[in-house]
Structure formats: structure tokens, C-alpha cells
Amino acid sequence: MRLIVPAALCGLAACTALPPAPPATAGSPQPPQRIETELNAHNQQIGQLQQQVAELRSQVSELQQRQQQLAQLLDARAASRRSTSHSSAEPAAAPAENLQEQAYQQALQLYRSGLYSQALQQLRFAERSGSGGRTEQNALFLLMQSHEKLRNCESVILTGQRFATRFAANPKAAEALYSVGNCQWGMQQRDIARATWRKLMQTYPNSPAARRAGQRIQDNR
After folding, report:
1. pLDDT tens-digit series, residues 27-42
2. Residue 95 falls within a domain, yes or no?
3. Which pLDDT does position 84 carry in this prediction?
4. Distances from the Cα of 94 to the Cαs of 67, 90, 130, 135, 147, in angstroms?
5. Residues 142 and 59 in one domain
6. 93 within domain boundaries
7. Which of 26, 68, 91, 144 is deepest in the core (most CB within 10 A)?
8. pTM surpassing 0.70?
9. What is the mean pLDDT of the chain?
């Protein structure tokens, strides 16, 4: 019995001397923490990708704007070249024609303002025979109208007949002949006035002036 007890005690001592279980490492995450960490990493990557996509879209938009600006610039240059080519192909207006056009425009403003005598002063160039261009035709007709407003019937007759003879194709020629006949009638040249109006009706039968002339003849038989 003395030998058995010490042996049992030795066995117990040996059991108590077994190495303890290793403690859990403090730095290793638990499974829920690991999932959360991975989700955060994925979300961060998604955010970075979204930012890159936004930057790419901005770059694409900027490139499209530059492309549109370049296209507009090319169109403007092409239009400018066409305009330059067209203007260079047309002959420049002579200085005299420019001065006549300016004088006509000034006379037209004076006429519309009721300043008929001043308008006549601006239209003196129309009394001389020129190239017969558009400005000269307009000026000569306005000259006749200014004389008509001032009741210068002799000047109306001379200017109106000249206009109708030189510019017979002008639509205003019919009105010029009517004014001539009207002044002749006022100067008691009734037969001459009727002849002028008949000529007007034969030459320009569809014009308003011809209808007025026919009515005047019918009313004064």
C-alpha cells in the first residue's frame, strides 16, 4: 500500500502537467468581421469604378463638343470662302453709281418728309442721260413725282414723257404717262391728254393706270 499511493500521486501530477490549449490569437478576425471587411473592400472598388466611368463620360462629352466646334469652324470657313469668291466675281460698283444711289436715298427721304424742293436738288443728276441703271430710273421717276407735288406741270410732262420713252419696260412707265396726261388736262390740253391716256391704255392695258385713264376719258366725254 505504501508503494501504490505515491504512484497514484505521480499519475495525477503527470496529468496536471499537460500543456494548456493555445489561446485564440487576438488579431485574427472572426467570420462576421471578415465578411464585413470584404464587403467594404468591394464597395470601395465599385466606388472607384464608378468614378472612372464618370471621368470617361466627361471626356467623351468634351470630345464631342470639340468635334462640334471644329465642324462649325470648318463650315464657317467654307461659307466665308464661298462669299469671298462670289463677291470677287462681281464687279465693284463705280464711285459715280454709289454717289447717285446715296443722292437718290436722300431725295427719297426728303420726298417722304414733304420736302419736295430739297428732293429736286438731290435728283439733278437724273436730268442728264446716263447708263439707264436702276438708280437712274428710280431717280427720274421720283423727279417727276416731286415736280408733280410742286405742280410744275411742264416739268412733269417733260420728265414723264422722257421716262416712258427711255424706260418703257419699267412698270412705272404707265404711271408716268398717266401723270403726263393729268398735267395736260390741267393745262387745258384736253385732246392731247386724251391721246396720252389712249396711248397708255393701248401700251399697258392691264395696268391700274390704264383703268384710271379709261375712267377719266369716260367721265369727260
Report:
1. 455 567 878 788 788 8
2. no
3. 61
4. 44, 12, 13, 13, 29
5. no
6. no
7. 144
8. no
9. 81
